Amino acid sequence: MKNTMLFFVVLLSFPVFAQDTLQTVKIELGRKKLQKSLLKTTNTTVLSSHELLKAACCNLAESFETNPSIDVNFSDALTGTKQIKMLGLTSPYLLIAEENIPSVRGASQAYGLSFTPGTWVESIQITKGAGSVINGYESISGQINTELLKPIKDIPFFLNVYGSTDSRMEINTHLNKKLSDKWATSLFVHGNNRLSKNDMNNDGFLDNPLGNQINILNRWQYTNAEKGWVSFLNFRYMNDEKQTGQVNFNPNTDKLTTSSWGSEINTQRFDFSSKIGYVWPEMPYQSIGFQNAYNSHNQESYFGLIQYNIKQNSFYSNLIFNSIISNTMNKFSTGLNFTSDEYKEFVNTNDYSRKDNSLGAFLEYTYDNTDNFSIILGGRLDYQNRLGFFATPRLHARYNPWEGGVLRFSAGRGKRSANIFAENQQLFGSSRSFNILDTNGKIYGLNPEIAWNYGAGFLQKFKIFTKSADVSVDFYRTDFQNQVVVDLFESAQQVDFYNLKGKSFANSLQFEFNLEIIKHLNLRTSYKFYDNKTDYNSGSFQRPLQAQQRFFANLEFETHIKDKGQQWKFDYTFNWIGKQQLPNTTTNPIQDRLSGFSKSYSLMNAQITRTFSSTFEMYVGGENMGNYKQEKAILGADNPFGTSFDSSIVYAPVFGQMYYAGLRFKIK
Amino acid sequence: MKNIILILMISFLGFSMNAQEAKKNKNAKYTIEVNGNCEQCQKRIQKVALGVSGVKTATWSIETHQLNLILNEEKTTVLDVKKAIAKVGHDTDAVKATNKDYDNLHSCCKYER
Q1: Which of A64, A363, A435, B52 is 20 to 30 Å apart from A639, CA to CA?
Q2: What is the pLDDT of residues A559-579, one digit of tens each?
Q3: CATH number, residue B46
Q4: Do B83 and B46 form a contact (C-beta atoms < 8 A)?
Q5: Cα A334 to Cα A359: distance, rounded to the nearest angstrom
Q6: Amino acid A51: pLDDT
Q7: Looking at residue A19, what is its pLDDT?
Q8: From the CA of B4, how many Å to the nearest CA of chain A?
Q9: Start and end of every HMA domain (chain B) (predicted)?
């Protein structure tokens, strides 16, 4: 009886995924680790799970290190959390979704990417530019969607153990059981910790936080291909604890005192999500999906004497219907989204708690002449209690002028409310005072951010003798109509937040060249140029901590797979990061000043994987092998309660070189 | 009065048409064999099949030469699709392409007749 009830609950709660599942299947057919399509209308790159094996590990934030579309930065010298940027804009301007449910948003903006372990990931789709309207109106510079491993296709057992010289340990265990030809379930358990203290630059502060995370996901999948039903049910719990600050800081005695500077960031999260998708068996081009997600995110933290607590309870619901108009050259998707967010947010004793709701309808029409041209016209209408009633139009077009070439164009609008504290948490690790200069807006006194994004790109695939190669160039511009300006130029003792008064834009130009040099030896290179200017109160500057130029190269080599699955894999990544605009530090005493721009530098990572059989492999690797370290990672480190203390100006690695090793074991 | 009669007539007509339509399958599935070779053939066959009003989906496999169709029988028949395909040079069991249309095919598409 109980089982029947459970079955019922599952069926009722979960519908939208039939379409996604179909897409995922397509992705798996390709054997390449990084796939660029000539036929997709949007500028989307697909990363397979094999791609994720090329970097040290470990979570989603780190999985983009071998990908040129996304820049991985270091957010601050305290938490070691890696921030990502796309088209020169930080992750709040991206829509980051997990199986098409927006996941990293609101309270989880700063650390959310580190809450998805890399081994859970089946594939990642990265879309540059405006993106689809189906999942919401918030995305401005791009969309990243992660597909997790599907229980129906998963292997019975997987184990991954990892350890590194920065004293981080990780363990990932996956268990899978096929209960019948229709039901399957997976249990993923992830744990990581860092127990020993490191201070390689002798500034008295930990280079990496002490911490531990436990992350458990249980998912259920129901598939009935004959009848056309697919359903997923996910339950997830995560607890993450970090301690950082001065080496001699003891939270039991020093918390919120001036005896030494320290910080603890503890996050607890519970997620539940469900999807149900139905494809009409007699009309395979028509489907309906319904997905629901509830999550509760609770961060309790302090940074020196500042206490910051944020709790977010969210509910998200999406109903989508896909069908055709007369034939499959004309497809459409339409549906409704509902989002509700309840925030309890406190900065010291200031209460910024609020409730946000939004309801919207979308329609997306796709024309594809099945040959060389396709266009996606999308639009949505939303009402949100703080953003008002507004429309979000988006357009993508693709044209193949000749064999192997594709020309793409996109344009679209995005609108969002900036969670100024959650998104700029790293600034709590400084002596800056937080000033909100506007009072009339509805979000912390500020207005919503609105931006238009336009982009065009060209990709050509070709053969050099018999080896495949491709070259591409794309240019994107984001124009802010309004932006919540985070001003670090006024002085080193304050950060000002205010509505944009002049202009703000982000231009991004990217060249890419990829080549299969000989069989199993692949080269990827890219060069990027950014021009991201904002009018601040004190003048017009490049946005800080954004390199204007970057060069990236990745070389991978694999030996032939032998009968029993034995193989060697080598991977090498080179990054050159140009000079970066730094915040104004001229108001500091002379020893705590930085020049206007950082120096350029380069980083090298490498990894070797040895596969002993199809079920067992080991890997070793190094990051930042040139051992480049930022000279002054923390300003005023000798007097953390003084006026020039700042741990937020990080433009290069703090830790220096790092080596790691790990193993993967599977039972198939 | 005239209007009422007109409305009655139209609705009556409408009904009878509906009744007739109900017998025909709006999502009839067919699989037919179409001669061809390559990706170019695939594009051409699919495009011309979709160009027939009433054809909802058309996918042709390069390996098996099978064309999977879903079509609205109220609007078209498989024979119409076969005729359209023959016109661009591809043979099916029922309708063969004329020599002229066959000769117009690109060299890689010239399947053995």
Answers
A1: A435
A2: 998 888 899 999 999 999 999
A3: 3.30.70.100
A4: no
A5: 14
A6: 82
A7: 35
A8: 33
A9: 27-93
Residue type (1 letter), A298 = N
Task: Write out the H or E segment, with its range, that includes residue A550.
Answer: strand A549-558
Q: Which of A476-490, B9-23, B92-106 has the lowest mean pLDDT?
A: B9-23
Percent of chain B exceeding pLDDT 90 equals 39
Contact with chain A for residue B64, Cβ under 8 A: no
What are A's interface residues with B at a Cβ cutoff of 8 A? 282-285, 324, 326-329, 369-371
- Taking residues B94-105, report their average pLDDT: 88
Q: Which residues of B touch A327 (CB under 8 A)?
A: 50, 55-58
Helical (H) or strand (E) element with A334: strand A327-347
pTM equals 0.88
pLDDT tens for each residue of A380-396: 999 999 999 999 999 99
Task: Report the C-alpha gap between A25 and A286 in whole angstroms.
Answer: 17
Q: Which of A335-344, A377-386, B3-12, B44-53 has the weakest average pLDDT?
A: B3-12
Give the model's pLDDT for residue A609.
94
Q: Which residue of A has its CA nearest to B45?
A: A370
pLDDT at A75: 63
Number of domains in chain A: 1
In chain B, the residue whose alpha carbon lies closest to the alpha carbon of A283 is B27
The interface pTM score, or ipTM, of the predicted complex is 0.74
B50–A328 C-beta distance less than 8 A: yes
Which residue ranges of chain A lie beneath pLDDT 70?
Answer: 1-32, 56-57, 75
Query: With an 8 Å Cβ cutoff, are B56 and A370 in contact?
Result: no
In a domain, B1, yes or no: no
DSSP summary character for residue A547: B
Residue A57 pLDDT: 67
Q: Which residue of B has its CA nearest to A372?
A: B43
Put simply, the answer to whether B53 touches A326 (Cβ < 8 Å) is: yes
| Host domain of residue B94 | 25-109
pLDDT the model gives residue B67: 92
Of B27, B50, B53, nearest to A329 by CB-CB distance is B50
Partners of B50 on chain A (C-beta within 8 Å) are 327-329, 370
Among all residues of chain B, which has the CA nearest to that of A331?
A: B56
CB A245 within 8 A of CB A264: no
- What residues of chain B lie within 8 A of the CB of A326, using their CB? 53, 56
Quickly count: other Cβ atoms within 10 Å of residue B10's Cβ: 10
Q: Which domain holds residue A398?
A: 2-667
Q: What does the block give as tokens for A21?
A: 């599942």
When divided into structural domains, chain B yields a total of: 1
Q: Quote the CA–CA distance of A568 and A617 in Å, as a whole number.
A: 10
Chain A CB within 8 Å of residue B29 CB: yes
Closest to A419 in 3D by CA, of A79, A73, A92: A92
Contact yes or no for B57 and A369 at CB 8 A: no
Q: Is residue B84 in some structural domain?
A: yes
Q: Distance (Å, rounded) from C-alpha A39 to C-alpha A245?
A: 50
Report residue B102: phi and psi, to 5°. Answer: -65, -40
Residue A570 and residue A598 in contact, taking contact as beta carbons nearer than 8 Å: no
